[in-house]
Amino acid sequence: MKKYILLIAVLAFLWSCKSNKTLSSAELTSNSKLITSYANTINEADIKKHVFTLASDEFEGRRTGEKGQKMAAEYLANEYKSYGLKGNHLTGDYFQNVPLEALKNKSEHPSENVIGFIEGIEKPEEIVVISSHYDHEGIKNGEIYNGADDNASGTSAVIEIAQAFSEAKKAGYGPKRSLLFINFTGEEKGLLGSAYYVSNSTYPLENITAALNIDMIGRIGKDKPGDTNYLYIIGADRLSSELHLINEDANQKYSKLDLDYTYNAIDDKNRFYYRSDHYNFAKHNIPIIFYFNGVHEDYHKPTDTPDKINIELLTRRARLIFYTAWELANRENRIIVDKADK
Ligand SMILES: [Zn+2]
Asked: Is residue 340 part of a domain?
């Protein structure tokens, strides 16, 4: 009898290993209950804590190379560490130092990109990037530019998405591909942190299958008064038709936001496609999506404060990016670049 009990226990153990660790791509990408359970770890309380910390007066507007930016970098690194993420495999910590020369005399001190890494289970060499810039304008004429929407909002989303994937991995649902989370410095100085990254990548650029960049997703733009369900999508179809469809499908299945492609028009006079860090990846033929809420009356003003962030909307927007990233990280085939960028 004891033998049978032991046998049953062994079989049960093996079954639990199987159900936890060997889900196929098809199983991992179709299990909406499982995926939603991790998307929902991205929650308003955590997002609010991150936004209010990063955009606090204590962080002094996070100007590149200054004390407040360094405090923000430490905060982000500590979050990645606490979730159990790996950092920059070249330096062993969570930073990529960006030297003064790369900051083109626009900073008095060197700065750093912040990096967190989750290794893929089946195709670790293939990488999905999820990024935001975390620097802002600092203090000017004695006024702190808190940069709550620009871009404590996107940065909070990136670290929450990192936490969601790390929770999944701990439970045996690690991503098939690797996930690289990067918070760039020097964006407000001219996309300098991301320019440095792509020239000094910690992984071969040709292995980056897609880059999702988040810059301002915590507010309602001036052209969308009262609309609490939209998000601008820019660039998704410029290099890969699949990337556009994956983001659309994730939204239709889960998030049900009103995705607006107005600023994706090739002749858009605002040229937003060229104005945040994703463009440095697109230049290298890496398919990108730029998630954006549009500009508003507090854009690049000291009044871009955390109390004005719509935490509920920001949380839902962050979840869409998680759903899209889940598909990109777990689907059977790497997305195809089938278009030439103009
Ligand atoms: Zn920005």
From this structure: no
Q: What percent helix, strand, coil does the chain show, rounded to 5? A: 45, 20, 35
What distance in angstroms lies between residue 103's CA and the mean position of ligand 1's atoms? Answer: 17
What tens digit of pLDDT does each residue of 140-172 get? 999 999 999 999 999 999 999 999 999 999 999
Q: How many residues does the chain have?
A: 342
Q: Provide the domain limits for residue 187.
A: 25-330
108 Cα–ligand 1 center, Å:
21
Q: What is the CATH number of the domain that holds 105?
A: 3.40.630.10
Beta strands in the chain (DSSP E): 95-98, 111-118, 123-133, 138-140, 143-145, 177-184, 208-214, 230-234, 258-260, 288-292
Q: Quote the ligand 1 centre to 90 CA distance (angstroms).
A: 27
Measure 151 CA to ligand 1 centroid, in angstroms. 5
pTM for the complete prediction?
0.93
Rounded distance from Cα 127 to ligand 1 centre (Å): 24
- Let me know if residue 182 belongs to a domain: yes
DSSP state letters, 201-224: -SS-GGGEEEEEEE---SS--TTS
- How many angstroms does the Cα of residue 271 sit away from the middle of ligand 1? 14
